[in-house]
């Protein structure tokens, strides 16, 4: 029974924008900025949403995949790939033996996984993580990414269900493209301690290109 | 008086859109599409700038950014390339490098004293006495300089983007356009770059009147715009070639870094000036410049001109001039055999006098050298490169067009690693070896005839397609036919010099001869001594001529001289473009916003931003640090240590891994206990230290110092791979927040938040325990880095801010005091703990630190052990000792790195020093010679002001030392 | 910017990598003489040629070996430590 709430790694940077804050998945996070109409517009041009609050479970070790399968979670067969491992839950394969499970707005697999006692499991070790995680949407996303990332991310180069670990804005990050409510969006995960920096850069460029911050409420209403 | 011609076919200006601007205080108008220079030329302005060194009046030379005669300032912006920068309304332009205006420039006298300023003058004249150099430097900088930099220039964000394609085609002339179209038709994605605002390259000025050529151009341009596979960057230049086909493309609004699978350089050629006396007068210009003026901007270059040529191009220029209504007084052809083609016949038929085997001996200036009054021409012997002055004839003219040859625009190809051979048929360096994926086409590749350039583009495109997995029929190109486009030695020597080779740097033929006489007769040395090609145009109009002159001086074939490589960037590029957006990646802990609100003064530690101390009104930094440290010693303080590196080592071989990686013993460590870890490199040099807590039979939790964490974690990963142990490393640096609660009342405060017993008996030094704070699982470790009574509290980082706030609340009555890293440094110094990287350097071994007890030399292996065995055989020559200054010490506070002196000799140095309020005196750590290291010994430290402070070797910790 | 092929993540620009020095066999610390050990830790053979080097792909935390011709700066092959591909294949000699 947890009384305390977590704070989003981006909270300091977000609060400068006077958002309406709220608690989601036990984390204090920006629910909305400015107003919905403008946020919707931003979302279509270049919207940035902080989803650091999504529940996550990570596991590493030679038998990590086996362990996840045993809990009913599907895992990608090759490295640098992701799939929907359970309804509303993304499973990212971050290396030969490392996986990140993330519940999206509707998923709930992580709660169950956390509940398992796996202290006696051999060769599969739970990984404590702290991610800053973002959704980028809109017509100008590739324009933004072409400034922040040195990789070719055009449709032909970044396959569906591919996952790239690369540098974004000079720091290590994980990037995938997914379809969210019929919209093609990009997801970025980075080390939480770089979260504020990443948020500020994303917002700076988004605003230059006619977009901006989009709150959780607007994104998932 | 207007020099504007009637509307020209294919001109770039829009005559219905007038643009108003001023130059040197005078109002002018031009049209949309004009460059600054073309608008001024149209208005009859001939003097556009002053030269760099001699302040000679200069006009247009290339009209293509291959020279910098016309550099102007517009408000904040300076060194604007007037020849190519598009005119815009309201520009208030001034020529750079003048003292009192471009016409009346007070520095023009320098031209008359130029014999006093020979090549290498600065190197020789000012190197001694050294004391006078600052004086001369000021004078020289004032005299020789371009635009003045405005230090208040605002930051204007220029984005740097990345782009990708199959083929990057550089240059949109006939070969580039054909190559791009062909590659696109073969299904390749193409980026086509050209520095001009419009596509077409030389077809937009040369051959401009010819119907056939016009058809080729409009057809190519149409096909490019119709192709969905071609992305065009016009008005943008390919600035350099970088490994694996990366080419930055610079446009007005920023740089695009293009990564291609193959590159076709269809970069063309720069026209080179023939060299004769006064070839720099305003009105003397390259033939291609005259063509650009007429065909792109509808401007007449002069009223009566002569053409000084040594190739077929000059004849086309003459025909273009005639068509524009210029009175062509003569063609002066350096070649004895002249030109025997239809154009020569046409010119002769039109009554133009053609002097073959003649040179322009000198251009005659009119008043103030502000223009051309005529030309002295005389017979020229190509074999000896001498002019027969006795037969000189004076011709009247107000302008001279020069066409004597070309230099390949090969900068990017050279950068890619091209090998060249000199082709005597065209007197030009052409590629004979290109790296995989790099291709040359068109004039840069030696193809000069229009049909040859088109087919060379197709040939390159076919080769690219085949390289990239398509199957395309190879294309062939006809070798060059007819006369050479370049003359091997277009130089006319003159006793008065002023026959310029490099217009940027005012370098004349005699400067090369003198440089060679001084022994600088290698092209690289000559370049540096004469500075040829070192100006802003980077040899575009001068490098080839410099090679030709040196070849003549040394009596070698041109090929033996070689060429210097023009480094990136191709054109000078504004700093703002290079800077792009500023990215300062930095890491913040979850508690950062609280620190900010509490007035923390931040310091960078690695990528982190950490509070150094919390500012208080009216108190100095030193006072605050002392206050914060006293709070810890007397009550309780807390510091956000979340930046510590943290790694979990899991698996059956976890202990074995630590035993090999660190110097101590971990095999027998009990769960719930912490041990000190010390990391050495293979040389036995101390790298890092931290704490390893065994949190499970097969699981250790290891800390690494903040700044070393990324590098140490990488080393862990590498060694694990090499040792092939059954262990897994998990970097949890960011996953856990750490708050260190320290001081005699730390126990009291922390006990309010947890239910477990934290007393000395239950949790002595070196123990750890799991606990909960408000339902959040935390780990509490007793570690004595800053105080004996200290608890490191580890929690999932998402909760760190709220737990920090809980601790503040819980410690209110005890006077809990947040402290920063400056205070932490003082606190650990008071305990006598050396810091890696502060009290150690890249050579320090653990014996010198007297850290033998951290070494388990009986283990089979740990990193650095073998080296330590060797080091241990030799006598130690220094040791790190804690020291104090006398309690009544009143002198200057010693600083880190002050030297330990004995009888005038250096024996060691201070590594940490501070006044400790708890010890009541100055304390520190220092390396001293072994004979100085025993307890109670007094040694001498020389402070910054040269005085000696007497220090006594003591035991740490310091605050019990009394 | 140069491209390098990470055996796990594919071709990436050099900015994603950290150089880890030449990969050399450590002499047996038990049996090597002081002189042999000192040469191992202090000497590097900088003569140009094909070198085995450690490289680290930063975003994914992957150490691997690159065989590089330091004269031509050509990377001949990359592989995880201890997993060198069989020699004399066509690609190797290319």
Compile the SSE list and pairings.
The complex is a heterotrimer of chains A (221), B (962) and C (94).
Chain A: E1 6-7, H1 11-15, E2 20-24, E3 27-32, H2 36-46, E4 47-50, E5 56-60, H3 64-70, E6 81-86, E7 89-93, E8 98-103, H4 109-115, E9 125-127, E10 131-137, H5 141-148, E11 163-168, E12 171-180, E13 183-191, H6 195-208, E14 212-213, H7 216-220
Parallel strand pairs in A: 1-3, 4-14
Antiparallel strand pairs in A: 2-3, 4-10, 5-8, 5-9, 6-7, 7-8, 10-13, 11-12, 12-13
Chain B: E1 14-23, E2 26-32, H1 36-42, E3 49-50, E4 57-58, E5 71-74, E6 77-81, E7 92-95, H2 121-125, H3 133-143, E8 159-170, H4 174-185, E9 190-194, H5 211-226, E10 230-234, E11 237-238, E12 246-251, E13 254-265, E14 269-271, E15 284-286, H6 287-297, E16 304-309, H7 312-323, E17 327-333, H8 342-349, E18 354-356, E19 358-365, E20 372-381, E21 386-387, E22 393-396, E23 399-403, E24 406-408, H9 411-416, E25 419-423, E26 428-433, E27 438-440, H10 450-467, E28 500-502, E29 507-508, H11 509-517, H12 523-530, H13 543-554, H14 558-561, H15 575-579, H16 592-597, E30 600-605, E31 608-614, H17 621-634, E32 637-640, E33 645-650, H18 654-661, E34 674-680, E35 686-696, E36 699-704, H19 709-723, E37 728-731, E38 736-742, H20 746-751, E39 768-773, E40 776-782, E41 790-796, H21 800-810, E42 817-818, H22 821-831, H23 865-872, E43 879-884, E44 899-902, E45 905-916, E46 921-928, E47 938-942, E48 948-953
Parallel strand pairs in B: 1-7, 8-9, 8-13, 9-10, 13-27, 15-23, 16-17, 16-23, 17-18, 32-42
Antiparallel strand pairs in B: 1-2, 3-4, 5-6, 5-7, 11-12, 12-13, 14-24, 19-20, 20-21, 20-22, 25-26, 28-29, 30-31, 32-38, 33-36, 33-37, 34-35, 35-36, 38-41, 39-40, 40-41, 43-46, 43-48, 44-45, 44-47, 45-46, 47-48
Chain C: E1 3-6, E2 10-13, E3 17-22, H1 34-42, E4 50-57, E5 62-69, E6 74-79, H2 90-93
């Amino acid at each position: 029974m947890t009384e305390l709430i977590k704070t989003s790694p981006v909270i300091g940077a977000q609060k400068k924008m006077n958002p309406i804050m709220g608690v989601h998945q036990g984390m204090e996070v920006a629910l909305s900025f400015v107003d919905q109409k403008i946020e919707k517009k931003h979302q279509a041009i270049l919207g940035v949403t902080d989803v650091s609050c999504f529940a996550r479970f990570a596991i590493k070790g030679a038998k990590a995949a086996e362990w996840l399968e045993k809990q009913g979670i599907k895992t990608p067969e090759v490295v640098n790939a992701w799939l929907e491992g359970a309804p509303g839950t993304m499973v990212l394969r971050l290396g030969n033996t490392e996986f990140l499970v993330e519940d999206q707005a509707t998923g709930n697999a992580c709660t169950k996984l956390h509940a398992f006692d796996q202290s006696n499991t051999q060769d599969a070790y739970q990984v404590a993580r702290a991610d800053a995680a973002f959704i980028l949407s809109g017509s100008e996303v590739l324009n933004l990414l072409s400034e922040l990332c040195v990789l070719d991310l055009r449709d032909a180069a970044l396959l569906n269900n591919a996952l790239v670990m690369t540098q974004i804005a000079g720091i290590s990050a994980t990037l995938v493209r997914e379809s969210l409510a019929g919209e093609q969006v990009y997801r970025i995960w980075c080390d939480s301690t770089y979260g504020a920096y990443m948020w500020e850069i994303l917002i700076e460029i988004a605003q230059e290109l006619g977009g901006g911050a989009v709150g959780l409420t607007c994104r998932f209403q | 008086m207007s020099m504007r011609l009637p509307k020209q076919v294919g001109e770039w200006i829009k005559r219905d859109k007038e643009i108003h601007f001023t130059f040197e205080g005078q109002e002018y108008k031009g049209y949309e599409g004009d460059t600054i220079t073309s608008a001024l030329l149209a208005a009859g302005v001939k003097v556009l700038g002053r030269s760099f060194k001699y302040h000679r009046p200069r006009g247009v030379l290339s009209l293509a950014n291959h020279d910098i005669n016309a550099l102007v300032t517009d408000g904040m912006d300076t060194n604007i390339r007037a020849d190519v920068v598009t005119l815009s309304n309201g520009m208030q332009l001034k020529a750079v490098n003048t003292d009192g205006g471009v016409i009346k420039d007070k520095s023009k006298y320098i031209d008359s004293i130029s014999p006093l300023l020979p090549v290498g003058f600065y190197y020789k004249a000012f190197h001694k006495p050294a004391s006078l150099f600052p004086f001369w430097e000021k004078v020289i900088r004032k005299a020789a300089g371009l635009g003045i930099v405005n230090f208040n220039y605002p930051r204007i964000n220029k984005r740097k983007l990345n782009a990708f394609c199959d083929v990057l085609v550089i240059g949109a002339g006939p070969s580039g356009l054909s190559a791009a179209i062909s590659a696109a038709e073969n299904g390749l994605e193409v980026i086509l770059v050209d520095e001009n605002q419009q596509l077409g390259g030389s077809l937009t000025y040369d051959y401009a009147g010819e119907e056939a050529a016009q058809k080729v151009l409009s057809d190519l341009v149409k096909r490019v715009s119709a192709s969905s596979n071609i992305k065009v960057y016009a008005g943008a230049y390919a600035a350099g070639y970088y490994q694996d086909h990366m080419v930055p493309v610079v446009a007005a609004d920023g740089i695009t870094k293009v990564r291609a699978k193959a590159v076709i350089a269809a970069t063309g050629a720069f026209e080179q000036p023939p060299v004769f006396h006064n070839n720099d007068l305003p009105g003397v210009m390259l033939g291609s410049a005259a063509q650009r003026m007429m065909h792109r901007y509808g401007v007449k270059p002069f009223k009566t001109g002569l053409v000084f040529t040594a190739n077929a191009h000059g004849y086309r220029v003459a025909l273009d001039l005639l068509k524009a209504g210029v009175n062509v007084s003569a063609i002066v052809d350096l070649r004895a055999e002249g030109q025997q083609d239809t154009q020569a016949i046409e010119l002769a038929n039109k009554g133009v006098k053609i002097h073959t085997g003649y040179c322009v001996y000198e251009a005659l200036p009119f008043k103030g050298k502000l223009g051309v009054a005529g030309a002295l021409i005389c017979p020229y012997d190509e074999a000896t490169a001498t002019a027969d002055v006795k037969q000189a004839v004076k011709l009247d003219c107000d302008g001279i067009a020069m066409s004597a040859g070309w230099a390949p625009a090969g900068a990017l190809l050279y950068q890619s690693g091209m090998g060249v051979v000199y082709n005597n048929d065209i007197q030009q360096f052409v590629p004979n070896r290109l790296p995989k994926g790099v291709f040359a086409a068109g004039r840069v590749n030696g193809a000069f005839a229009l049909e040859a350039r088109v087919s060379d583009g197709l040939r390159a495109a076919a080769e690219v397609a085949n390289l990239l997995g398509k199957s395309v029929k190879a294309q062939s190109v006809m070798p060059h036919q007819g006369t050479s486009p370049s003359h091997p030695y277009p130089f006319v020597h003159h006793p008065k010099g002023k026959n310029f080779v490099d217009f940027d740097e005012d370098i004349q033929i005699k400067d090369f001869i003198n440089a060679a006489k001084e022994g600088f007769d290698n092209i690289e040395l000559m370049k540096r001594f004469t500075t040829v090609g070192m100006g802003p145009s980077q040899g575009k109009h001068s490098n080839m001529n410099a090679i030709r002159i040196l070849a003549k001086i040394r009596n070698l074939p041109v090929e033996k001289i070689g060429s210097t490589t023009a480094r990136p960037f191709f054109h000078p590029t504004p700093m703002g473009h290079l800077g792009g957006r500023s990215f300062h990646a930095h890491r913040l802990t979850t508690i950062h916003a609280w620190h900010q609100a509490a007035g923390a003064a931040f310091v960078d530690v690695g990528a982190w931003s950490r509070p150094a101390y919390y500012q208080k009104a009216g108190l100095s930094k030193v006072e605050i640090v002392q206050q914060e440290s006293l709070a810890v010693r007397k009550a309780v303080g807390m510091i956000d240590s979340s930046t510590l590196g943290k790694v979990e080592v899991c698996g059956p071989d976890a202990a074995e891994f630590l035993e090999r990686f660190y110097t101590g013993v971990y095999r027998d460590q009990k769960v719930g206990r912490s041990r000190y870890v010390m990391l050495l490199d293979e040389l036995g040099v101390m790298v890092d230290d931290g704490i390893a807590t065994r949190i499970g039979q097969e699981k250790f939790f290891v800390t690494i110092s903040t700044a070393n964490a990324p590098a140490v974690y990488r080393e862990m990963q590498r060694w694990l791979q090499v040792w092939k142990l059954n262990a897994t490393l998990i970097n949890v640096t960011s996953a856990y927040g750490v708050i260190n609660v320290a001081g005699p009342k730390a126990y009291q405060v922390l006990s309010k938040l947890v239910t477990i017993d934290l007393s000395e008996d239950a949790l002595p030094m070196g123990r750890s325990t799991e606990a909960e704070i408000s339902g959040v699982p935390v780990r509490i470790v007793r570690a004595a880095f800053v105080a004996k009574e200290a608890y490191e509290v580890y929690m999932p980082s998402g909760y760190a801010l709220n737990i920090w706030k809980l601790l503040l609340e819980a410690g209110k009555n005890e006077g809990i005091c947040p402290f920063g890293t400056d205070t932490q440094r003082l606190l650990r110094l008071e305990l006598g703990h050396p810091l890696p990287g502060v009290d150690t350097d890249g050579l320090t071994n653990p014996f010198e630190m007297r850290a033998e007890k951290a070494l388990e030399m009986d283990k089979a292996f740990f990193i650095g052990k073998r080296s330590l065995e060797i080091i241990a055989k030799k006598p130690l020559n220094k040791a790190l000792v804690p020291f104090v200054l006398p309690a009544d010490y009143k002198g200057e506070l010693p600083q880190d790195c002050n030297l330990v002196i004995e009888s005038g000799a250096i024996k060691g140095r201070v590594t940490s020093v501070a006044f400790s309020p708890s010890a009541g005196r100055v304390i520190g750590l220092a390396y001293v010679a072994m004979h100085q290291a025993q307890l109670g010994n007094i040694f001498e430290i020389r402070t910054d002001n040269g005085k000696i402070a007497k220090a006594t070797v003591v035991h740490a910790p310091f605050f019990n030392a009394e | 910017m140069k491209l390098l092929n990470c055996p796990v993540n594919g071709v990436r620009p050099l900015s994603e990598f950290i150089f880890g020095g030449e990969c050399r066999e450590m002499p047996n610390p038990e049996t090597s003489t002081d002189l042999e050990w000192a040469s191992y830790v202090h000497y590097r053979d900088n003569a140009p040629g094909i070198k085995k080097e450690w490289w680290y792909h930063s975003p994914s935390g992957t150490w691997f070996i690159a065989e590089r011709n330091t004269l031509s700066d050509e990377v001949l092959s990359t592989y995880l430590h201890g997993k060198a591909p069989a020699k004399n294949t066509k690609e190797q000699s290319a």
